[in-house]
Amino acid sequence: MKKSVRTAASALLAAPLLAAVFAAPAQAAPEDVTLSATTEGKDMIVTITNNSESKIDCRTYTSPMISAVSADLGPVDVSMEVDPGSADSARVTAKVRGEHTIDWLCDASDGSEYWGTFRGTAEPVEITFEDRTFGSVNLIVSQLLESIFES
After folding, report:
1. Are 105 and 57 in contact (CB under 8 A)?
2. For 21-30, which contacts have Cβ atoms below 8 Å and span 24 or more sequence positions?
3. Is 78 helix (H, G, I), strand (E, B) or coil?
4. Among the listed residues 68, 130, 69, 79, the one whose alpha carbon sits nearest the alpha carbon of residue 104
């Protein structure tokens, strides 16, 4: 009898703990965290807006890479923390011009919610660095090569 009472009591006490451990993360609303990106010359400016109630950790990845640094999850172009109800921007100088796709991932610091292209709450962002944005030296060299090969 004592054993069955202890077993029942243990099961009763363990049930809420197990439910909390195995509960699915809260559903993140796509509009809570957004990313926008623009180009300015050779630079990419990424802005992350955090309308959630949590501090978030964010990372962006471009394909092809523009200027990645090594990180735990692979080549990351931008890594930042954004406080609740605020926006933060980062500037990255591109080493590779042309068209790039930005994928991103943000997660609440407590691990309860996730946003971004890897979590299905956003679409990738497309940006383009035009050839002319990489300085007059490239333009002069390009014109010189054209004149040599046209002759």
Report:
1. no
2. 25/111, 25/112, 25/113, 25/114, 26/112, 26/113, 27/113, 28/52, 28/113, 28/114, 28/115, 28/119, 28/121, 29/121, 30/115, 30/121, 30/122
3. strand
4. 79
Q: What are phi and psi of 122, to 5 degrees?
A: -155, 160
From first to last of its 151 residues, the chain has per-residue pLDDT tens of 555 544 444 444 444 433 433 344 456 899 999 999 999 988 999 999 999 999 999 999 998 887 655 555 457 789 999 999 999 999 988 888 889 999 999 999 999 999 999 989 999 999 998 765 445 555 566 566 656 666 5
In the chain, the domains with their CATH numbers are 30-150 (2.60.40.2060)
Contact present, 54 and 84 (Cβ < 8 Å): yes
Rounded Cα distance, 106 and 115, in Å: 5
For 148, the enclosing helix (H) or strand (E) is helix 136-150
d(CA 49, CA 9): 47
Taking the C-alpha atoms of residue 150 and residue 141, their distance in angstroms, rounded to an integer, is 14
